[in-house]
Each structure stands twice: as C-alpha cells, then as structure tokens.
Amino acid sequence: MKVPARIQPLVVDGLVDSVLRQLMSGKEAMVYVVQCGDEIRCAKVYKEANKRGFHTAVDYTEGRKVKNSRQARAMAKRSRYGREEQEAAWQHAEVDALRRLAAAGVRVPTPYQFHEGVLLMELVADEEGEPAPRLNDLALEEAQALHFHAELIRQVVRMLCAGIVHGDLSEYNVLVDANGPVIIDLPQAVDAAANNNARRMLERDVDNLTAYFGQFAPSLLDTRYGPEIWSLYENGALHPDSALTGCFEASEAAVNLDEVIQVIDAAQAEEEARQLGRLRAANEGRPPPDET
Fold it and tell me: What is the model's pTM?
C-alpha cells in the first residue's frame, strides 16, 4: 500500500522497507503492518491530540516525570511549546511502559524503536503468523475463560510490582497469541506510587476483566481481586508470585466516637483560651500572647 506520510521518515531513514496494510484504527493511534528487513512488525502512528478520542486527562498524567522545570512550567501554562512537550510525553509514556514491563516479565509487545512519533514494535501473531485476534473477538469456554482470567490477573500483579497501572485495561486491549493473552495499548499507563488515581484505575481494570470473563465463567463475578491486590501492594506485601484468593473484606473497625469528641472538645477549649488571652491583652494594653 501507499506509505502514509507519518511513516515516510522511517522509510527514508531505512527503518521501514514497506507498508503492507493497515491493521487497525484506535482512539489514539493507527496501526500498520510493515516490512523491516526480514521481519514483519507493527508501526503505531499516534494521532494528533485534537483527533484522539482518548485525551491526556490530568487523572492519567498526574505524577509523570518531566525532563526539567522549564518543561513542567510550559506544560502547566499550556503554551505552544508546553502542548508539544505534553504530546511528546504522552507518546513516550507507552514506550517507557513497554520497556519496563517487558523487563519485568509482563506479556507485552516488544518495542524496537520510537522515531518521529511512530512506535515500531513486535507484531503479536497467531500460529499461522497472522495478527493475533483481540480477546473480545473470541468465544470462550468456561475453563478457557478461567485460565485467561488467571493469566491476566497475574500480569496485572506483575505490572503493579513494576510500579505501573494500565489505566484502560479491558478485553479490547488484550491480544491472544498461541501462548495466551498479551496486553497492549499503554499510552495512558500511570505511575502507581505517584498518581493518586492509581488505586481506582487498578480496581477498574480488574473489574473490567471480571465482567468480561464473568460472561463465560459466572463464578468470577463474586471475586474481589482488585481490592485484594491493592491492599497487598499498599502494605508492601505484593510480589509477582503472591498467592491471591479473590476474597477481600475491607476493615470495618469501629470508630471510637467518645475519643473523637474528646479531641474536638479539647481543640475547642484551646481556641477559646487563645481568644480570651487576646481579649485580656487588648484590655490591658499589652501585646497579644505568643501563640507559637
């Protein structure tokens, strides 16, 4: 097929020999199958910010590191330079996440090169060498659904142990090759330790998986892996091979109302004493007492 304009610089630089076909068009990127020497790979071309369905919401960008203070100020002011830097950071987030997760043993496509806003990465293929199907395109038996669910929960744990939450995980962001599920689409990945929304996003990711696989294996609908995983993580007890049960009960320790009331009364009495001291000082012509 004709080489798309965004991929042309990679052809000129010898990174891509030809574009074979378009593979998919998503909310943040177009993906093409390309020939690179003797290998068939994917070229992910990120859409411009105003053409994306998935925006760089603050919920996702919170906690992301930037190169320097100048870049951070520009991004905060939303200047032209700041918007360009924010766009570059959005694109690089997926590259960085893929590299970190691959090193942590998470099943993600291998990233090869990021050039001119195009990510060259492994083509996840089926046994015939054709692009692997998405999870939502498969009809599953109950046993297979339970197996895939367990595999993906394990991948979510490995991701969190590497400090990353996918943030948009569902049956639409998982490919299935001969060896099982492969997680894709990570430009919105968040830093688990630096993003205040990480817990909510992780639990949503897990809930999405539970709801999907629960169609084929209803027993999964009663599980609570999300809160269990986060509780272990928060307490420093989560490991890539942590044994999970799917059961979780939030702590419901009773609040000591008498103790709370005593603290409130003490604070109120202290404030009244300060007010009285200031009033006496004013009446006697003295400076107010030192309240530090």
Answer: 0.76
For 275, other C-beta atoms within 10 Å of its C-beta total 10
Q: pLDDT tens for residues 11-29?
A: 999 999 999 999 988 778 8
Asked about 177 being catalytic, the answer comes back as no
CB 173 within 8 A of CB 81: no
Per-residue model confidence (pLDDT) at position 78:
55
* Cβ burial, residue 202 (10 Å; 0-12/13-18/19+): buried
Catalytic option among 168, 177, 191, 265: 168
- Out of 17, 96, 185, 207, which one is annotated catalytic? 185
**What's the gap between Cα 25 and its chain centre?**
21
Tokens of 33: 């199958």
CA dihedral angle for residue 266, residue 269, residue 275, residue 280, rounded to 10 degrees: -130
Instruction: Give the position of tokens 């068009």.
Output: 25
